[in-house]
Specification:
410 residues; alpha+beta; 7-stranded antiparallel beta sheet; 9 helices; 22 strands; 34% strand; globular; binds 2-acetamido-2-deoxy-beta-D-glucopyranose; signal
């Protein structure tokens, strides 16, 4: 039996009467640093060999001080700017994909009788100039306490509006509750109430905002976990590169809370655990390059059965899983086709010569076509793609697509 609940959000005392609510900020941020960007409040701007860098204000804090400063020794995953990842292992990787991807999947054991599965998904949008920015996050928890279960799925999006007259920026954060359910609980007397089972309350996501630095905060106190998110602007005419405060997200686990993570029941994903193999080592094991391995991971867990859904990405993954039977075949396909998602010159051209409305689907469909012909070894389909895609996209093919020899597939 499932009881759907209206959820009281801790911290700010907001009650989600509907399943969706909005927060606004228009904070000034900290000092200006470099050509476009501002640091966060209290951070300092330093000239490091001619490059302006935001530095955290305290020696015990670390981070990209344009986004966040966090205690040294904590466990952090950064998805910064036009997004590149800095994972638990402190490795950098480009996240070149317009499809949803899983950032991490962790199992926490906070108490002997308690298990929490936590999953984080992201999705980027391709903007003008060929830059991707993280536009959506979805965080889910499944909490087991003895024989009872609570599930919560929240989705976070946002936007930035610019008032060109006053040069001010308005941030909008949207938090959407996709599911909050408590299973195997007795029927509630009053259904519009807070979660009554207090054993679960410390695992409920608490939503708040940093109005000064324009960040959304999502906290799970019982896990020592915080997610910070600053969205890009979804408006085609606004150059996200030049926004005073860089878009991005940070997922933070407090140092002491890492002990609760059961590594053997968690998955490495792109977040790569500090004590596990690095992405580079995993790529070497699979005899492939780091960028191709990262593309493989992004595609591998590209869809959740919980967050948002993307029809084209979903279909692509189905084709790949059906037709590219071995991991070698997938890597071989990605070695060429990921150029559609990652070739800088191509992305610049694609976003220059087409409107956003036109190129968003065109881009995903080009990748789908490439994956399909490579996985099915379809020579005529491959030749057709190479012939027609320059016309459709109004751009020269990425070099790696040009180089595919359609007559001799692996
Ligand atoms: C900046 O410093 C003030 C005063 O010490 C403090 O209240 C505020 O929380 C700090 N802000 C950040 C983002 O650390
Ligand atoms: C930003 O918010 C302020 C206060 O809510 C409002 O006066 C202003 O018109 C907004 N600007 C834009 C561009 O939406
Ligand atoms: C995602 O979309 C595909 C195709 O539109 C659909 O078949 C699938 O059931 C959807 N998955 C979820 C979890 O909504
Ligand atoms: C190969 O591609 C062509 C052109 O896209 C298509 O018409 C044909 O059905 C494909 N053949 C196979 C076996 O998938």
């Amino acid at each position: 039996m499932t009881a759907r609940l209206f959820l009281a959000v801790l911290g700010v005392g907001l009650t989600i009467a509907q399943q969706e609510y909005l927060l606004y900020t228009n904070g000034p941020g900290g000092v200006e640093c470099g050509k476009y960007h501002r640091c966060i409040q209290n951070a300092t701007c330093e000239d490091v060999k001619g490059v302006h860098m935001c530095e955290c204000p305290h020696p015990l804090l670390v981070g990209n001080a344009k986004l966040q400063c966090l205690p040294k020794g904590d466990y952090d995953v950064w998805i910064q700017n036009d997004p590149h990842l800095k994972n638990f292992h402190s490795e950098f990787a480009g996240l070149h994909t317009p499809c949803p991807y899983r950032v991490l999947n962790l199992m926490f054991v906070p108490k002997a009788d308690t298990r929490v599965i936590l999953e984080l998904y992201g999705q980027n949008v391709l903007f003008r100039g060929g830059h991707y920015f993280l536009t959506k996050l979805s965080l889910s928890t499944t909490v087991y306490i003895q024989n009872d279960l609570m599930k919560q799925i929240m989705e976070f999006e946002g936007d930035v509006l610019v008032d060109t007259d006053t040069n001010s920026y308005n941030y909008t954060f949207l938090a959407r509750s996709l599911d909050t359910s408590l299973l195997d609980e007795p029927e509630m007397q009053d259904r519009s109430m807070e979660i009554v089972d207090t054993r679960f309350s410390e695992y409920i996501m608490a939503i708040d905002k940093d109005a000064f630095n324009n960040l959304l905060h999502v906290q799970i106190p019982g896990l020592g976990v915080t997610l910070f998110f600053r969205p890009p602007s979804m408006h085609e005419e606004i150059d996200n590169i030049k926004l005073p405060m860089v878009p991005g997200a940070v997922f933070n686990i407090q140092r002491d809370s890492w002990k609760m993570v059961d590594i053997s029941k968690s998955e490495y994903d792109i977040a790569a655990f500090p004590e596990g193999p690095s992405l580079k080592e995993q790529a070497t094991d699979m005899k492939t390059s780091l960028p191709t391995y990262v593309q493989w991971l992004l595609l591998q867990d590209s869809l959740s059965d919980l967050g948002y859904n993307d029809t084209i990405c979903y279909k692509t993954r189905e084709i790949v899983n059906l037709e590219c039977r071995t991991e070698e075949q997938k890597l071989y396909m990605l070695g060429a086709c990921s150029a559609v998602y990652a070739d800088k010159g191509f992305l610049e051209c694609l976003t220059e010569r087409n409107t956003m409305h036109e190129y968003l689907d065109m881009h995903k469909l080009f990748f789908q076509t490439c994956a399909s012909v490579m996985c099915t070894k379809n020579t005529s389909g491959c030749e057709k793609m190479k012939r027609e895609m320059p016309e459709v996209t109004k751009c020269p093919l990425p070099k790696k697509i040009q180089d595919i020899d359609c007559s001799t597939f692996m």
